[in-house]
Specification:
Blueprint (H helix, E strand, L loop, with lengths): L1 H28 L3 E10 L10 E6 L10 E4 L5 E8 L1 E8 L3 E10 L4 E10 L3 E5 L4 E2 L6 E7 L4 E9 L1 H6 L3 H9 L14 E10 L8 E7 L6 E9 L2 E9 L2 E8 L2 E8 L10 E6 L2 E7 L5 E5 L6 E8 L2 E8 L15 E7 L3 E2 L4 E12 L2 E3 L4 E8 L5 E9 L4 E7 L7 E9 L2 E9 L7 E7 L3 E3 L3 E10 L9 E11 L25 E9 L5 E7 L14 E12 L3 E12 L4 E6 L12 E6 L11 E12 L2 E13 L7
Length: 649
């Protein structure tokens, strides 16, 4: 009995000892953890800064180093990061218009590191966006102002421009660049030098967020036919944008020393006969011809600097078209040597800020049917940023084999965007683009789907943003910021025509996503989904269904997950003016008086071009004639047809 007790006691002692050993091993192998509890505020006001991204990165990187942690400040400007391995970290923070440079912090085991981060405001910024560049006289022009700054009042000025005065500057593009870069070093840099001010008003910013960034629509009074410079001032910043008010449009197609010009009525789409064409050469316009009954004219073109400007005039309306001709060199560089070919490329198309961009190029001279070496020389290199502002100019030596090499080191704080090189040699030039992007590998997917494949204007659209991890499972509790944009969609709808779709136009001087519609916020549910609804509104200018455009609406979703991850996605849907599409086509386009014309009618669905049967269509036929400056329609008759089960009649 005593022996048993002694044996049992020994077993217990050994078991306890082993447990203590295992417990000690577990403690020694456990990673020491700490946490960070902080707040962010704006340096200029001391107010909390919500929605700021805080990035915490380990200073010493090895195979066991934890990944970067990214969190976002809440509505009170506060954030908390738990379970951080003890050690040295660098912390950075940024928002739309505020930033904090990298700062080193220490995280201690079992301790909470308290941080009070003051983000400095970026320099004031102002940009003008024109999602529509050409307006008709009965339309209300609008431009979009985006920016950041303490001054929340915009001074808007409208100038009616004389294009002939632009040519005195050297070219229309040179004059626009002068105004757009806000260069007032000489008198002709001012808009008053090109025309007269016809309107001015102050606009109080209405859509500023907590940081002071804003996105406002500036609505102008209706303008008469002509060219206009819209100038906006905020504090010391001045930005401008060019718009046209016209009833006509000009399309050009060039080849060799000729250009085919087509002038059409913007409202009816019909050709305009008798439009006067002028060619912009040096410092004046010269007569080039008139359009025929089909709105067409072929004109002779020549350009000293490689760019040709054509202007069409009909009544008070004017339209411009500018295209590049390969017959000349760069503006201001002198005439190019004949037969000079220049080609350059970079080592890769995309870089991160701070990367050193390597480039290489070749120059050859065409002699007869052979390429020869051009001889010694230098290649001038220009670097321009996403706003086409000149960043740096330098030269590269042209080697004996006709090649040149060089590099351009980007700064660590360079703004992401599309940049470009301009290489010049022997009067010839080449533009080459590259992209700076701060990229992080996504850890979850973002898919934007719509409740229907298409909506009719005026209906409520419903979009679902679904977030899933790549390894499976929904991303629940993630904050979703949704921005809605739209672009006019002039797609070709005929189901029997070739499969071709015009791209939605986005005339935007800064690369925006089109006309801004609405901003919304939401949180993903247990299935990783967030739903957004908005009403598709018809503009006042779109009330006439004969000329109202269809639109492509795009939802961009920025998703910030509670687990420190932040990524973006987008999806688009078509919004049409009617429930179905209509195509009308005659069997012939040119007829003799008294000849019978057969017309085919088709009604079909927008989303899949399948027949939309049993629709009653009213056909109105007549004659269109220009009387002075107005288009008159002589109604000759009306008839109704009804499409069959196949949608045709």
């Amino acid at each position: 009995m005593s022996a048993f007790r002694r044996g049992g006691l020994l077993s217990i002692i050994l078991g306890v000892a082993m447990l203590l050993v295992l417990l000690t091993m577990g403690i020694t192998q456990e990673t020491p953890l700490g946490s960070v509890d902080g707040s962010v505020r704006m340096g200029e006001s001391g107010l909390p800064l919500p929605g700021a991204a805080i990035i915490i990165s380990p200073v010493f990187v090895n195979a066991d180093t934890p990944k970067d942690r990214v969190v976002f400040s809440d509505k009170k400007g506060e954030f908390f990061v738990n379970a951080l391995p003890a050690g040295e970290y660098k912390i950075e923070a940024s928002a739309k218009a505020h930033t904090l440079p990298a700062t080193q912090i220490s995280v201690r085991e079992g301790a909470v590191t308290a941080l009070d981060l003051e983000l400095k405001p970026k320099d004031p910024e102002l940009r003008l966006y024109t999602s529509q560049r050409v307006f008709m006289p009965d339309e209300t022009p609008q431009v979009e102002a985006r920016g950041f700054g303490r001054d929340q009042t915009l001074n808007v000025e409208v100038y009616k421009i004389d294009v002939h005065q632009f040519l005195a500057k050297g070219s229309v593009q040179a004059a626009l660049n002068t105004l757009g870069d806000n260069y007032y070093g000489e008198k002709q840099g001012r808009p008053e030098a090109f025309g007269e001010q016809i309107a001015a008003f102050d606009h109080k910013v209405q859509n500023a967020d907590a940081e002071g960034t804003f996105m406002d629509v500036l609505t102008l009074d209706k303008l008469g036919e002509g060219f206009y410079w819209i100038q906006c001032k905020m504090g010391n910043l001045t930005r401008g944008s060019f718009i046209s008010v016209s009833r006509i449009a000009l399309v050009t197609k060039s080849a060799a020393a000729e250009s085919l010009c087509y002038v059409t009525d913007l409202k009816t789409g019909h050709p305009v006969a008798g439009a006067v064409l002028q060619l912009g050469e040096k410092d004046k316009f010269t007569a080039a011809g008139k359009t025929n009954s089909e709105g067409l004219a072929t004109i002779k073109v020549s350009s000293q600097d490689g760019r040709t400007l054509v202007m069409a005039s009909f009544g008070a309306s004017q339209a411009l078209s500018s295209f590049y001709s390969r017959s000349g060199g760069d503006e201001g560089s002198g005439a190019a040597q004949p037969g000079i070919a220049l080609f350059a490329y970079t080592d890769r198309p995309i870089y991160r800020p701070g990367d050193d961009i390597q480039f290489k190029g070749f120059v050859r001279k065409l002699v007869g049917s052979d390429y020869k070496l051009p001889g010694a020389g230098q290649v001038t290199c220009e670097v321009r940023d996403a706003d086409y502002t000149l960043v740096k100019t330098f030269t590269a030596d042209l080697k004996s084999n006709g090649s040149f090499t060089g590099h351009y080191p980007t700064a660590d704080d360079s703004s992401p965007g599309d940049y470009s090189f301009k290489f010049k040699a022997f009067g010839q030039q080449q533009d080459l683009s590259f992209t700076l992007a701060a990229y992080r590998k996504p850890e979850f997917t973002i898919k934007v789907s719509w409740s229907r494949p298409r909506y009719t204007m005026g209906e409520k659209a419903k979009a679902t943003v679904k977030c899933e991890y790549y390894f499976g499972g929904p991303v629940a509790g993630a904050k979703v910021t949704a921005n809605i944009y739209r672009n006019q969609d002039w797609g070709w709808d005929d189901p029997d025509a070739e499969e071709y779709q015009f791209e939605s136009e986005s005339y935007d001087t800064g690369g925006a996503g089109g006309e801004f519609v609405e901003n919304m916020e939401g949180v993903t549910d247990a299935n990783g989904e967030a739903t957004f609804e908005f009403v598709t509104k018809r503009d006042k200018e779109d009330q006439d269904p004969d000329y109202a455009p269809n639109y492509t609406y795009t939802l961009t979703a920025d998703v910030a997950e509670a687990g420190d991850k932040y990524f973006s996605g987008e999806g688009s849907v078509k919004v049409t003016q009617g429930d179905y599409a209509l195509a009308v086509e005659p069997d012939v386009y040119i007829v003799a008086p008294g000849q019978t014309v057969n017309v085919s009618v088709k009604t079909f669905k927008h989303e899949n071009k399948s027949p939309y049967p049993n629709r009653t269509v009213e056909l109105v036929y007549g004659i269109e004639k220009w009387t002075g400056r107005e288009l008159a329609f002589i109604d000759l008759g009306r008839t109704q047809v009804r499409t069959g089960p196949d949608g045709k009649a």
